[in-house]
Amino acid sequence: MELTFISQSPRETIGCGKLLGSIVQPGSIIGLVGELGAGKTCFIKGLASALTGVAEDDVTSPTFTFLQEFPAAIPLYHFDLYRIAALDDLRDLGFEECVYGAGVTVIEWADRAEAALPPECLTIHISVIDENRRAFIFKARGEKHTEIIKKLKQKTGGGTDEWH
Ligand SMILES: Nc1ncnc2c1ncn2[C@@H]1O[C@H](COP(=O)(O)OP(=O)(O)OP(=O)(O)O)[C@@H](O)[C@H]1O
Ligand SMILES: [Mg+2]
């Protein structure tokens, strides 16, 4: 199942992240794919604040540490794999424990760990349309993650496949 969201500003992207943050469940896995500056972290600011209550300003790309954890009733594990050299390095980071744990996992540069991603997850491809506009394409694999897209559709206007 697929869904496209066109964001016209960073604020709208944060809003979309918040919406997803209100829908995800323990065990949800979200992979973000998009060039430098596409808006991956911006989206996660909304997701993390809605899910864990963290301040948006405290959510930044963990480019050098690879992982930032936000403790909460449902914890959030935020990975940034931009600088990951080998998939083996993921093991040392506890990637599997996060992904198969009771929290929500969100991964920037998920395409760099394609082979390590579980078969069931939600991927979001972001493309830059122009300075302020981004297209977010949501794709789900597996029943649980398809359910997330269905709920997103319900909350964004009557089941359309595209919203603004
Ligand atoms: N509609 C939009 N949604 C998100 N960001 C936008 C939008 N329009 C402009 N921007 C700008 O694009 C940039 C997105 O930065 P962000 O750090 O979220 O990207 P990123 O994909 O995480 O990059 P990186 O790969 O370097 O971690 C910000 O400077 C933001 O202000
Ligand atoms: Mg980032």
List the keywords.
single chain, 164 residues, alpha/beta, Rossmann fold, eight-stranded mixed beta sheet, 8 strands, 26% strand, binds adenosine-5'-triphosphate, binds magnesium ion
Provide a short characterization of the protein structure.
The protein is an alpha/beta fold and 164 residues long.
Which helices and strands, and how do they pair?
Elements: E1 2-7, H1 10-21, E2 29-33, H2 40-52, E3 67-70, E4 76-80, H3 88-93, H4 95-99, E5 104-108, E6 121-128, E7 134-141, H5 143-155, E8 162-163
Parallel strand pairs: 1-8, 2-5, 2-6, 4-5
Antiparallel strand pairs: 1-7, 3-4, 6-7
Helix pairs in contact: 1-2
The structure holds adenosine-5'-triphosphate and magnesium ion (MG).
Question: Number of DSSP strands?
Answer: 8
CATH fold category name:
Rossmann fold
- Bound ligands, each once: adenosine-5'-triphosphate, magnesium ion
Question: Would you tell me the structural class of the helices and strands?
Answer: alpha/beta
Mean pLDDT: 95
Notes on the protein architecture:
With 164 residues, this protein is of the alpha/beta class. The protein has one domain: 3-Layer(aba) Sandwich (Rossmann fold), CATH 3.40.50.300. The protein has 5 helices and 8 strands; from the N terminus they run βαβαββααβββαβ. An 8-stranded mixed beta sheet has the order 3-4-5-2-6-7-1-8. Helix 1 crosses helix 2. The longest helix is centred in the first third of the chain and has 13 residues. The two termini are 18 Å apart. 39% of the residues are buried. Bound molecules: adenosine-5'-triphosphate and magnesium ion (MG). The site of adenosine-5'-triphosphate has 19 residues, from helix 1 and helix 2. The site of adenosine-5'-triphosphate (ATP) has 19 residues, from helix 1 and helix 2.
